[in-house]
Design goal:
The chain is an alpha+beta fold and about 290 residues long. The chain contains five helices and 16 strands. The chain is globular, with a radius of gyration of 21 Å. The two termini are about 20 Å apart. The N terminus is likely disordered.
Length: about 290
């Protein structure tokens, strides 16, 4: 279960053509059949199903326009508003992720990531001048110094660490409820390789030293602007010393223990098909874990 084409977690694979070469041209706004998504923050307008509520160009509200691209020969766009009106049934994409059609989810994730970036960069980071949106929402141009600013993504590593006995290392964040354990994760620092970030984060958070690191899969996580890069790592030490800051508890578990906890309800993990952390764990386990996880 290491083939990223078969990865079961949400929004792991793009399902639309982003048509970057069309962003400099405004003609896409005149496309017949243009489908428009309405969103504010991470919430999108929906209809029963649930599904994304698509409107026509003429029905779309006032807001910042984004060119999302083409899907099945149809141009898709989004209009970013401060808040989706209640009558349009706003729902968080994070909540919708396991329920949406993969094609719609691909477009929604792209839109949410861009909307978050647009909202966070109204001024030029270099001179403080006001910026305007260009190129289908994918560039902010400074009206004072002329600098173009592009969307940024914060890379983060998320890792399933195993030891010589093939036990998995799971941990609990202090803000999580009792019984919730998952994989370790952390942001990549400037000038740091992804594999080194895996080793550093594990050492800092639980005091375990990691040797071999192997790439598994990646997942965009636009809440607000991360890319989760999943790895499998092999521990060279097993003594656990949690930092009591980002980690409250950590433990080594066998497959048998994990199955027993899943069946008894002792352990709670992130919802299925949403987070890459679940995929990492089940890849090690060898399939779906028994119980109501």
């Amino acid at each position: 279960m290491t083939d990223t084409e078969q990865a079961p977690f949400a929004f792991h694979r793009a399902r639309h053509d982003r048509t970057g070469n069309r962003r400099r041209l405004e003609e896409w706004r005149d496309d017949e059949g243009l489908r428009v998504m309405v969103l504010g923050g991470e919430h999108v307008a929906t209809v029963d199903g649930p599904a994304v509520r698509w409107t026509s160009r003429d029905e779309a509200p006032e807001g910042e326009w984004l060119l999302l691209g083409e899907q099945h020969g149809v141009t898709h766009a989004a209009v970013v508003v401060e808040r989706v009106p209640d009558e349009l049934t706003p729902v968080s994409v994070r909540t919708l992720a396991p329920l949406l059609d993969p094609d719609e989810l691909s477009l929604a994730i792209h839109a949410v990531a861009m909307a978050r970036w647009l909202a966070s960069t109204p001024f030029c980071p270099r001179c403080g001048g006001r910026t305007e949106v260009r190129q289908g929402g994918h560039v902010r141009h400074c009206l004072e110094c002329g600098k173009d600013h592009f969307p940024r993504t914060d890379p983060a590593v998320i890792m399933l660490i195993t030891d010589a006995d093939d036990r998995a290392l799971l941990a609990r964040n202090p803000s999580w409820p009792e019984g919730r354990f998952s994989t370790l994760a952390g942001f990549v620092e400037p000038g740091e390789a992804l594999e080194d970030a895996v080793r550093r984060e594990v050492s800092e958070e639980v005091g375990v030293e990691v040797g071999e690191v192997r790439y598994g899969a990646s997942q965009p996580w636009p809440f607000p602007a991360s890319l989760m890069v999943g790895f499998f790592g092999r521990a060279v030490t097993t003594d656990i010393h949690v930092d009591h800051d980002e980690i409250a508890q950590a433990t080594w578990v066998t497959r048998e223990e994990l199955a027993r906890w899943g069946e008894s309800g002792e352990l709670v993990l992130p919802p299925p098909h949403v987070s890459i952390s679940r995929w990492l764990i089940e890849s090690w386990y060898g399939g779906p874990i028994p119980g109501s996880w």
